[in-house]
Amino acid sequence: MIAILSLKNELVKWPTGELKRMVHLGFNNIGGFNNVIGAIDGTHIILGTAPLKQPEIYWNRKKKYSIQCQGIVDHRGVFINYEIGWPGSVHDAKVYRNSFFYQNVSTLIKGWDYLLGDSAYPLSTFHIKPFNNPVNNLETQFNITHSLHRVVVENAFEINNDSWDELDENDDSNSDSDNKSNSEENNNICNLNENSLRRAGELKRNQIITQLF
């Protein structure tokens, strides 16, 4: 394990310079989205037995004990960032908001760069999600194209036939308003910030639609 971890900074690194340009081009070649720096998703690593301390917090919605794994991959499905260790009962959005990526987004996201993720994650200028309830053909087409790009992260969790269990976080409780269950954890200042990020994300998503379609 020490030998493996010693390679982390060499093998799991955020794209910059020429590598960043390759990632942009790679995602663009998939379906036309520009400036995508990565795709994000979460999965669950199933535990064989209940943890001795606070086992209830590791009990997930599929009635299994697990720990969370959040991964960000490039267009090839190569991991460029990960967050691991949160108990299975914790929502993807909370893992995301407390992750290294989110806490250091100003140093990782440059210019028009952004991630693609599913509805478990809050909309912002640096994370673009699909429409939860598309109301016209443009929004439907956006969702289809978005999925073509984002599927690389889902495939990355399965590439070696790992027996990791993904939970479907795209239920009605995770609407754009969004993640109301998490709002109770935030104070008013944080909520205002989240609302501002969401509104800015909505504008950026609409700009992407205009450019693409």
UniProtKB/TrEMBL annotation:
It comes from the Eukaryota. One of its GO terms (molecular function) is metal ion binding. Residues 164-175 have a biased composition (Acidic residues). Its main location: nucleus. Residues 164-190 are annotated as: Disordered. Its cofactor is a divalent metal cation. GO terms for cellular component: nucleus. Keywords: Hydrolase, Metal-binding, Nuclease, Nucleus. Belongs to the HARBI1 family. This is DDE Tnp4 domain-containing protein.
